[in-house]
Design brief:
- By secondary structure, the chain is mainly alpha-helical.
- It is built from twelve helices and no strands.
Length: about 325
């Protein structure tokens, strides 16, 4: 085949490889194989032609792209936790703040209601739970409920329930964010009534040192799941310059990333509740240490680190542009 015919026959394919490479792995492999065949043909019949180094450079570019993609896939998990998730969280710090304020507001409202209505706590927590807790208080073991089952059974059940609750709060965002508000209301009221009950029994600070060992991560995760629900709901309500369906896809993707990021936190909270909280007689310093470490981690990973990462990237981009 003459060189001119060879070039005319394959030029469009080469230009596509150069300007618009495939992203599907099977297509990339097929195109790379064809390109290597063309390069071998050119080296054989046109060794001194300009088309040979051109195809050699194009093949090198495609190969490096394949190698880079493989390397990126291997570090995908690390990149998700180190960069991708924190940047998504930073993008929606406002929604996290709204979820925190709504949840906390309902918890305070519930505590205030419980202080003025003795039947409120029973109405929220149920007669059975209140009577069981009162019986435990009478026996001198007010937090005995955390010893009612063996550690592994409690851990598995609590982890599953926590993940389920967070998923429901997120999906409720489809109801224009109102569903998420409702679940934040329910959980906030339960926490407010629950915490007031122990303070009313003279066990307030003791309950903080025991229950918030796992509650710090658990409650923080519920709030962040609520923020993910707001991201989903707001993508429907406020599409901005995007088509509503495209906005929903973006909001659903970002909200789901936030939800996935909470799974290890919920598992850690379940571990603490199943294996640690039951030791209500542990030294106060140890309880404060665990509680403080949990709070520090939540504030660092979901608030401080995302802000620092965003600033670091902004400075890096500014330096490169200059």
């Amino acid at each position: 085949m003459r060189e001119g015919l060879f070039i005319r026959k394959n030029l469009e394919k080469w230009k596509k490889l150069q300007d618009d490479p495939a992203t599907d792995p099977d297509e990339v492999a097929s195109e790379f194989t064809e390109l290597v065949d063309d390069l071998g043909y050119a080296k054989t019949f046109y060794p001194h032609s300009k088309v040979t180094p051109y195809l050699n450079g194009l093949a090198s570019k495609v190969y490096l792209g394949i190698y880079k993609n493989k390397k990126e896939e291997s570090s995908r998990i690390v990149r998700f936790w180190k960069t991708e998730l924190p940047l998504v969280v930073r993008k929606y710090h406002r929604e996290i703040l709204y979820a925190f304020l709504i949840f906390t507001g309902f918890a305070i409202l519930a505590a205030f209601s419980a202080a003025h209505d003795e039947s409120f706590v029973r109405g929220v927590l149920g007669d059975r739970y209140v009577e069981m807790t009162e019986a435990n208080i009478a026996k001198g073991d007010p937090f005995g409920v955390y010893k009612s089952e063996d550690q592994m059974t409690m851990f598995m059940a609590i982890a599953f329930n926590n993940i389920k609750v967070s998923f429901v709060i997120f999906v409720a965002g489809f109801l224009l964010s109102l569903g998420t508000v409702w679940f934040l209301f329910k959980n906030g009221v339960m926490l407010g009534a629950f915490q007031y009950y122990f303070f009313a029994k003279g066990l307030g600070w003791k309950s903080v040192l025991v229950i918030w060992i796992h509650g710090t991560m658990e409650i923080s995760s519920i709030i962040i799941a609520g923020a993910a629900g707001f991201v989903l709901g707001n993508s429907i309500l406020f599409p901005g310059t995007y088509k509503r369906l495209d906005s929903l896809r973006r909001g659903g993707r970002d909200g789901l990333k936030m939800l996935v990021g909470l799974v290890p936190v919920f598992i850690a909270a379940a571990f603490l509740e199943g294996f640690v909280t039951r030791y209500a007689t542990m030294p106060i310093w140890l309880s404060i240490f665990i509680l403080s470490a949990s709070l520090f981690f939540i504030l660092w990973y979901f608030v401080i680190y995302p802000i620092r990462l965003e600033k670091k990237i902004a400075v890096s981009n500014l330096t490169e542009n200059h």
